[in-house]
Design brief:
The chain is an alpha/beta fold and about 220 residues long. It is built from 5 helices and 13 strands. The strands form 3 sheets. The protein has a 5-stranded mixed beta barrel with strand order 8-11-9-10-12. The protein has a two-stranded antiparallel ribbon with strand order 2-3. The protein has a two-stranded antiparallel sheet with strand order 7-13.
């Protein structure tokens, strides 16, 4: 089953990174930002929505210069609303599967394509070898399905903040986080994305920059 819609969640303050800008606009090279990398990932999707909030004009002006047909969704309460709220805003009129991507992810393009192409109609969770400073760790069964999430202790893999989502999984805007909303649907299929780097803290940023050659 082909997914046609991608949602990039980029409304947050990014306060832990300390750059005083949306994380999606952070440079990864002198002439490339995180959002440039993500727009390359989703260039073949028919509909790309980006949810903006913090310094939204900066994000909108930048992405519209890169892809004119991108759909802009404003999250007006971004200071208090969660990623789940952003996903709900972007998908309330979408009645088919979509891929949700946090706006601070750097992902190997071939692995991303393999992830999306492996979607067979059932919600598919992206996981990655544990590497971030504040991960949400997962347990897998013998079929490589996610059977639980936890903050501690650390496991071999963590929730990667990317998923191909289809009904009956529905993201509730009133929940604080996305991953707990998968719990009632467990076990869920997973896909290991080896070279995926979340830029959430200064330490994460350093790790991502050190691995740009793997993207």
């Amino acid at each position: 089953m082909k997914i046609k819609h991608a949602v990039i969640c980029a409304a947050g303050l990014g306060s832990r990174l300390g750059k005083n800008m949306p994380k999606t606009l952070v440079n990864i090279t002198e002439d490339k930002r995180i959002i440039d990398h993500q727009l390359e990932l989703v260039e073949d999707f028919e509909l790309v929505s980006i949810v903006v909030g913090y310094k939204c004009k900066d994000v909108v002006d930048y992405v519209k210069d890169k892809r004119e047909d991108i759909r802009i969704i404003h999250n007006p309460g971004f200071e208090n609303n969660s990623t789940a709220f952003s996903i709900d805003l972007a998908t309330k009129d979408i009645n088919e599967p979509y891929v949700s991507i946090d706006g601070d992810l750097l992902i190997n393009k071939e692995e991303f394509d393999n992830f999306v192409n492996s979607f067979d109609g059932e919600t598919l969770l992206g996981i990655t070898p544990s590497k971030t400073e504040d991960g949400v760790y997962v347990h897998l069964n013998e079929n490589q399905e996610v059977i639980s999430f936890q903050r501690q202790p650390k496991t071999d893999f963590e929730w990667a903040n990317i998923a191909c989502i289809n009904k009956p999984v529905i993201i509730d805007k009133d929940e604080d986080y996305v991953y707990p909303q998968f719990i009632k649907h467990l076990p869920l299929k997973s896909f290991i994305i080896e070279h995926l780097y979340e830029v959430d803290t200064p330490g994460d940023y350093e790790v991502a920059l050190a691995n740009l050659d793997k993207l």
